[in-house]
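Data follows
____________
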Amino acid sequence: MEKYQIQPQSMPSTYNIQAMFNISSTIAQCLKCEMGIQELVYSLTSSKESLITWKTFFQATISFLSSGHSGAANPQAHIWISQTTSSIFQIFKSTLTSWPGCTSLIYSKLGLNFRDFVAACCCWLEQTPKTDALMFDHICECIMALLKFTKSNPKGDPKLLSELSKYRDTTIRLLCEGVLKDNTVIGQEKILMCIHNWITVCNSPLENETIESHFIPLAMLFVSMEEHNSSGIALALLAKLQSRNPKPFFRFCETSWDTMEIVKHLGKACHQLESGNLSKTLLNESGHWIQICTGCLTKMNDEFERSSILKRWESDGGLETLMRLVKACRDIVFKKTTTLTGSNELLEVFDRIIGNAALALSECLRNANHCKILHECGLTEPLVELLRFSSDRMNRSQQSTQKNIAIACARLSQFGPALERIRQMQAIELLSLVGAK
């Protein structure tokens, strides 16, 4: 309790575990339906006495969670503690996931400190056996609901996000340990989604120790299991990591992945695009691999380091793979695939793929010899066509994609014949317009 700086609530120092079990299990059952939530809201707003009763109960639940496993004097008490804890987490999940506005009303009336709730979750994650999948599941669902509530409630407590951020790395470490110590734990996808939400909502860089000892090993475990439902989420986490914490990510790449590994996966992404398979899942996975590839090529500050990785990239077939990728994207645009044009969500993913591919190409095109190679292999035409496609859509969200392609075209034009072909395609003016935005 002291470790997580939990503030003791105003409640009796001892309480009857069996009574707590009976009350919490009954309330948890009632709050599973919308009518139960409506009754709670009515009780909180109808009278001062009801409000005080509910405040006392919720403060008692926080204190119960904060006490961990203490107080279990016999096997029956152990059972009650476990079942009571499950019920309490269900109560918090139900109230945090109720309809818009309701959650804010409930917690503003109760005046609860969410920091203490998250600290209590950490306390239970620390002490719960790693194989207790049900408890991990409950805690994950509650944390995800709290993060979603925090993100969608900008008018709430401005300190809440800051307080939650304090426990992010600790929570991620404990969740990772839960899977790494026993990969039979069910709900692994939910745990990965919970970590993903933490990183999305609290977007500051993670501690390197958390990344290298817990985060990367967990993500790699699932990325290597390509048929596993969680491999896509794990890949998304790695893609976020390379943009958020590039240094530990590249240390990991040097020891666990080489450029050939990334090129191999990028080749698979090309194959999916070339086959016309434009499902959301496959497009997202392709996008993540391209983002990782782009990060590896663009995050190097040292000129020698950059030159070294570009040489490895070329020798491992990276240039050819990127060219295949651009041509596959151009073919998709020309075919005007109904799956793509009928979904704004898929179009956004597709735009990110094009933008990241262009960014990776721009890095390769710093080298004059690469400009010559790529033009002679037929890169110029599809690149200009993708620039025209992106510019024609005239959407703000595509501006970064347009600029990335324009930069790639500008660097390609260092090679005289490429510049001439760009002129023939009447794209010089288009490059100027994109550059002015």
